[in-house]
Sequence to fold (222 residues):
Amino acid sequence: MTLTLGRRDDRSAPHSGLHLVLGSASPRRLALLAQIGVRPDAVLPAEIDETPRPREEPRALAERLASEKALASAAIAGGRADLAPCLTLGADTVVGVGRRILPKCETRDDAELCLDLLSGRGHRVFTGLALVTSGGAVRRRLVETRLRFKRLSPNEVEAYLASAEWCGKAGGYAIQGLAGAFVERLVGSYSNVVGLPLAETVALLGGQGYHVHRRWSASLVQ
Fold:
């Protein structure tokens, strides 16, 4: 899948000629970037095997998959002269209860199992960030958010399952949707739970000369 977005006028691209490639097909990550005024020059997700390794813990899985996604996407971007030079951003979000990795739910049974595990219990959401620089180096960050769900009644579980909001979501829920009603406590980045920790992403990009705040004034005059 390749999605090339509209070009910006040179006057509105204050990033020393750097292009930004997003190595993710997630519409939530694209929307979060748009929220802070960032519009990638291309979206180039790559197919990788996301199966956890034996005894791999949630934190390690998020870090590994983010790096693999970023590197695979950067390899695709490397064949595009119109994207040179570029930064390639990869991310992966994993929900964990203790050392247990919760799946990205594709079936109702998966989602029901996740809700049962999360009900009345604390869990953690990890997002790995990986940024491949124009020189091929990889810069990494890991962000952790701690949450606690209230005790869910059978009626609440059934209603949420019927909504199908859980489909394709890590841990079987979307905090930005109906499941926001389940969260009793959250410590850390909210946007991390949605799929992309914004403050940390901005810092990672800024460290490579892609300064997000310089886009804001340019956006106002477009």
Q: What stands out?
A: The beta strands are 3-4, 19-22, 42-43, 86-97, 100-102, 122-132, 138-149, 183-187. The chain has seven helices and eight strands.
